[in-house]
Amino acid sequence: MSIAAVVPPGRMAAGPQPVLDLPGPLHLRPWTPDDAPALVESCHDPDIRHWNRPAPLSPAEAVDRIARWQERWQAEEAAIWAVAPAAGGLPVGLIGLADLDLAGGSGEFLYWLLPAGRGGGVMVEATTRVSQWAFEELGLHRLRITHSVANPASCHVAVKAGFPLEGTMRGALLHADGWHDEHLHARLRTDPVPPAARSHARTP
Fold it and tell me: For the chain, which domains are there?
């Protein structure tokens, strides 16, 4: 007997990518071509380059990348949001789910912040909010976060957002300075929401 898909095909692409509210002045919205300067800037930020390994992008290439993100939403392959001022303006960060497996009910986070977005806890809020959307609205079962063991900031985000550490993957990702071991964090839809994450979650 075949196993039914955790998330039926077409559920994600049936509607537009939503805007997700956050506490404070920022929200999560789809990227637009006008956001290309922020994406270009991210490729030159030393911290983002070190942990995320982006290739340098020209403004035209950034516009093309944003268009591909929109196509990947329609193809139900990824969901990428800009962390941006709710009142308007360029993004200060990115968060999303890639490696989406709707049939299997899973996805993996990716995120970064430009210097203007750092230090205020926004990535914990954003991770909590996207998790809420993924579990309650899309219907995924398991979300994961992986990061270099040398990146304590990402470890802090994962734990505060309710993603306990499951283990260490040895020599899992090649960075400019060599192979890094990676932490694996994960959260299930059935997991209780810890107090630190609950305080950031939006009331349905």
Answer: 20-198 (3.40.630.30)
User: pLDDT by residue (tens digit) across 47-66?
Assistant: 999 898 888 999 999 999 99
pTM over 0.90: yes
Over range 147-170, report the average pLDDT: 96
- 12, 105 contact by CB (below 8 A): no
C-alpha torsion sign, points 47, 51, 52, 53: positive
Least Cα distance to 4 among 106, 102, 78 occurs for 102
Contacts (Cβ under 8 Å, ≥6 apart) of 195: none
**What are the φ/ψ torsions at residue 111 (nearest 5 degrees)?**
-160, 155
> Buried b / exposed e across 63-92, counting CB within 10 Å, b at 16+?
bebbeebeebbeebbbbbbbbbbeeeebbb
| Look-up of token digits 């509607």 | 15
